[in-house]
Amino acid sequence: MKRLNRLIPLAILINIATSGLAHAEKYDFQLHGYMRSGILANSDGNRVDSVGLMPDGKWRLGNEEDTKIELIPTVTLKSDSGAVAKIQANITHQSKCTSDWNCQDDDGHDVQFREGYAELSNLDFAPEMTFWGGKRYSSSNTSSHQFDWEYIQYNGTGGGFDNMDLGFARFDAGVYAFSPTDETKAYPVDKGDQGYPDDYSLNLWFKKIAGTGLDLELIGHRMNRNENHPTSAEKGYGVTGVYNFDGFWGLTGGYSKLVMQYGRGLAAGDSLGKNGWGWANLEDTQSWRIVLDSLASMGNVEVSTFAYLQKDKNYRWWSSDDNGWGRTSWVAGIRPYHQITKNFAMQYELGYEYLDDDNYKGVNGKGKGGLTKITVAPTLTFDSGFWSRPQLRFFVTYAKWDKGVSDALDGNYNWNTNTIDAGGYSRSGDTDTVNFGVQAEVWF
């Protein structure tokens, strides 16, 4: 019965889409998706977790132990008037429970709907614009595939529009409501208030300003305090500037972008460039970040590079510290990709992460030092190119870290004792590991 109930929403989606055929000039159904899965083990023969210091992101090549599957059914309807409707869902399973769309039941491993929304475009009064409503990823989300991290990420339930022509720029606007899973059952501080607090984010994007590669994003947050964080911020604002260069910093083919971000209050700390994760921030929490994201294309050789530096002031993790503390983090990495034959490539990755956290996760944990990771991955490819998928990767990874970041490496926060339990890498006192594995990655 439980499995049947999970299929009902998809059946309803398909039924609604097909019921409109009599009123549509053209009907189209597509199924896209993403999948990664594999095994990550150490030299002792034990299954291990990914190795990394940052709360978000990691050097992913040879460093992923989870399974993630996304199926994205999309129905497109075109009316005889020319209007276009798109109805899309995102059906996801992930063996790691990461957010409100994937952790509804006790085990946190069920199939969930990350997206469910509708778009209308080519309307008679605004033929170039797209209007949307429902649960959606922002069309402006930006990630580093190499570091497995979205440094611009606005997801949630809401509505808005894309691609308004302002003359000097294209303009997108949207409102998103989002709650991390751990907070959705929290009450407001005033128990007389109904419902639960939610993070409402207003997202304004100005793109291709003055015909250049410059984009500018303005973000505002608002939410009521909840019982878990009675002294937290109730508002916040942020700004992101992106400059998209031609090719690899103008030197060769590929792409490159420089990103600069600032946030205060709810828009700082773990919510810098995101929505929904700054629930414990103070009103005067501030964060700054600079990102360099690029890919150089030189025939059979392509080189991905990624780096960022972030500084946080009066930062507070999900704790009750009165004043917060300072935190600095930075990473830099390179992944060369060499296509040797049409169906065989060699990939290599060298990445470094550094963390200086004065009060790691609010329990005086260790959090100062660096980690170096090196991976070699012979790869079977379906076609040529860095972005070609499917890929089957066989890899060996070596990682070495400073003792000062042993808690941050893979320690698990214990909510009952307000301490960090030692993880698998650090509990034996080792400061390095050799890991092996195989992984399939697909998108279609």
TrEMBL record:
GO annotations of cellular component type: cell outer membrane; pore complex
Keywords on record: Cell outer membrane, Ion transport, Membrane, Porin, Signal, Transmembrane, Transmembrane beta strand, Transport
Record bears the keyword 4Fe-4S: no
Extent of the signal sequence: 1-24
The keyword Cytoplasm is assigned to this record: no
Domain of life per record: Bacteria
One Pfam family per UniProt: LamB
Membrane topology: Multi-pass membrane protein
InterPro entries for this protein: G_neg_Bact_CarbUptk_Porin, Porin_LamB, Porin_LamB_sf
Gene Ontology molecular function: carbohydrate transmembrane transporter activity; porin activity
GO biological process assignments: monoatomic ion transport; polysaccharide transport
Location(s) in or outside the cell: Cell outer membrane
Family of this protein: Belongs to the porin LamB (TC 1.B.3) family.
Name of protein: Carbohydrate porin
Protein's organism: Kluyvera genomosp. 2
